[in-house]
Every structure is written in structure tokens, then in C-alpha cells.
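From the shared-data thread, chain only:
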Amino acid sequence: MPHPSPSRRIPRLLDRLRFTLRNRHYSQRTEQAYLTWVKRYLSFHQGCEVETLAETEANAFLTDLAVVRKVSASTQNQALSALLFFHKHVLGRPLGELGEVVRARRPTRLPVVLSRDEVRAVLDQLTGQNTLIASLLYGSGLRLSECLNLRVQDLDPTRNEITVRDGKGSKDRLTMYPERLKEPLRRHLARVKATHQQDLKEGFGRVVMPSALDRKYPNAAAEWRWQWVFPQQRRWRDRRTGQEGRHHVDESIVQRAFKAAVERSGITKRASPHTLRHSFATHLLESGSDIRTVQELLGHKDVKTTMIYTHVLNRGPSGVISPMDRMRH
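Structure, as C-alpha cells:
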């Protein structure tokens, strides 16, 4: 039986890739990135039979990214991960030794770090919930996406813990709940809860559930504990079901507000919301916190990643206080 034409097979392969990623609970961001890279890979070898794609073709594509496209090392590594997944789980032919792939150069750059006074200056220029979001990034060492994906049940002020679920590498971790943010967050959640209760009265109030839990627990999406800590102001409509709900705040809104705050503060450093995470780690280490503890709080797989923030190695166990709580009133 003749094989379907490449133009027909590619959409089917991409559908299989999407299904396999979701079945293995990969994040939406990873799904989109892998789909993009596989599309580019298949386009790069346009005209070739899919059955012929192997190590040589993968090598050629990755080398082109480095030599011609001049992508960064992290971008090339992401493309490699996408190809490895595609060949193993979709084509059923795992890639073997790729040979001499020309690797993109990884620039040696130190992260931008704000001083405590600079952090305070930027926070003073933010308003509303953007202030609270930025304070959590600095006070708990969260990535922006991790902060915006927080659900009400992830905050535990009693145990002074914040649970980061499905963080980078699809891992959960615990980080600190700054004492100084407990009361502002309590007031914020009271307002969010009032909005949620009003949504319920109007027949809405449901959120997107992780890992298709809405099918297993149909009513859970309307429960308070599953609501976003930072929901959007406006409800969105699901085109498939017609239901309205609230998603969390979009990252771009926070990023624009932060950029404007940095400019108004007069700081000339190239700072972004992620800079607050770098500052969190650096200030903890400067205060004498154990680098292994900081590694766990940040969710780094390898302590070498954490060591970029300091030349100090392990200073021994010590109690950890959030840098947010060390700031002067």
C-alpha cells in the first residue's frame, strides 16, 4: 500500500506529537515549543520521506541552527530535546549517536542582579496586584510563570510554605512564604474570593484544571481552592463548551508594568521580572544561607546552576529568612 503524501502525513504526525505530549503531562509551553521545532525540522527536510529521517538528518538540522541561524545554546538544546522526543515517541525510532554536531556557543554571562535598595525602588513604582506579584518573585524566588500559575491551595501561611507545582522540568517544590506578604495576600485573596463567589452566582466561576482533572472531578473546577491566586479581570469564553471562566493574568501584562517601573525608578540595569529571582538567590547567599538550601528553593537540578550567583561554596546549614523580610519598612 503506498504511503500517504508528505503533505498529508505531516499534520497527522503533529497531531500524534501533540497527543503524546499531553498524554505524558508536558506543559502547554513545552508542547508549543516541541511542535514548532518539529515543524521546522520536517520543513528543513522537505521532500524527504519521514521513514528516512535519522541521525544524519537530525545532525544536519541542529548544525544549521548553530552555523546559519546562529541560535543560542539553550535554543539548540531545546530543539534537540524536541527531536529526541519526536523520534522516540512518535516515529518509534530513537535517535542514536548524532556524531559531530556543531554546538552553539553558550555565552558566559552573569545574571543581572538588583541591590535591595533597587528592588525597593522598583516595587515602589508598581501598583495594584503587580506590586504583589513582583514581591512574590523576589520574596520567594519564583519564576513569573510559576507565580501566575499559583492556585489558592498552593499558599500555606500556617507552615510558611508556597508549593510550586509542575515547575521547570515538570517538578513540584516548596519555597518560603514571606511573613511580610501574608497580610497583603490575605486581603488580595479576600477580594479574589468575592469575585469568584459573584461569578458562581452568575453561573460561571470555573477554571482550567491540570492534567484533565475536570473529567475525574467534574465539580472541582468551581471550588475555591482551585482558583488562580492572580486571575484576570475579565472572564474568557471557552469556544468548545461556551462556558465562561477566568484564566490567570497574562505574563506580558506584568512584564510591561515591570519595564515601566524600572524606567520610572531611574535604574539603568537591564532588569526584567526574572531579575527579581536572581536577586532573591544572590541576597540569600550574601546573607550566609547555605547554597544547597538556595538550590532547593530555586528548584535547580544541579548546584552548579546555583553557583553562578556567588563564588562562595557551601557555608554550612543555616536558617533561611526571606530577603523580603530583611527590607526596611
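The two ends are 76 Å apart (CA to CA).
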